Amino acid sequence: MACAPSPFCINYPAIMKKLIALAALAGIANMAAAADIVGNPEAANNKVAMCIGCHGIPGYKATFPEVYQVPMIGGQSAKYIESALRAYQKGERKHPSMRGIAAGLSDQDIADVAAYYARQK
Ligand code: HEC
């Protein structure tokens, strides 16, 4: 033993071990938090009301502020829908109406609507 356990003795290897253990714990906690969010398509029923106005129209066109094609999202994979909505939130995707809509969605909302649309054919 190079170092007896006393207040004047700094046991670096032991401190490092504690730090590594703490970091590992924090990592596990993060993963648990992300895994807690499970998309529930039933819960999405009242959340997609506002999406249907644009994404539910046959022909998928919106006319304001100009006529543009609204992409079909029903039947896309949940992962794709989630990452698209996150990209609008972060501003990586620029469409103003979708940015506004995504900004109002919580992580749970995103998981729910993604599960809902992924289930559609
Ligand atoms: C005002 C009309 C409008 C509403 C309301 C709307 N969207 Fe959109 N959405 C669009 C348009 C237009 C695009 C294409 C934007 C672009 O080019 O980036 C789009 C794109 C998307 C995309 C990406 C699709 C792809 O293939 O890349 C997703 C996912 C999406 N919307 C989900 C939703 C959800 C979920 C809601 C409801 C919470 C919603 N949208 C409400 C008009 C709308």
From TrEMBL:
**Molecular function terms, GO-annotated:** electron transfer activity; heme binding; metal ion binding
Tell me yes or no: is Heme among this UniProt entry's keywords: yes
Task: List the keywords (alphabetical).
Answer: Electron transport, Heme, Iron, Metal-binding, Signal, Transport
UniProt cross-references to Gene3D superfamilies, sorted A to Z: Cytochrome c-like domain (1.10.760.10)
Q: Which residues form the Cytochrome c domain?
A: 29-121
Keyword field contains Kinase: no
Q: Which residues form the signal peptide?
A: 1-34
Recorded hits in PROSITE patterns, A to Z, give: CYTC
Pfam families reported in the protein's UniProt record:
Cytochrom_C (PF00034)
Q: What is this protein called?
A: Cytochrome c553
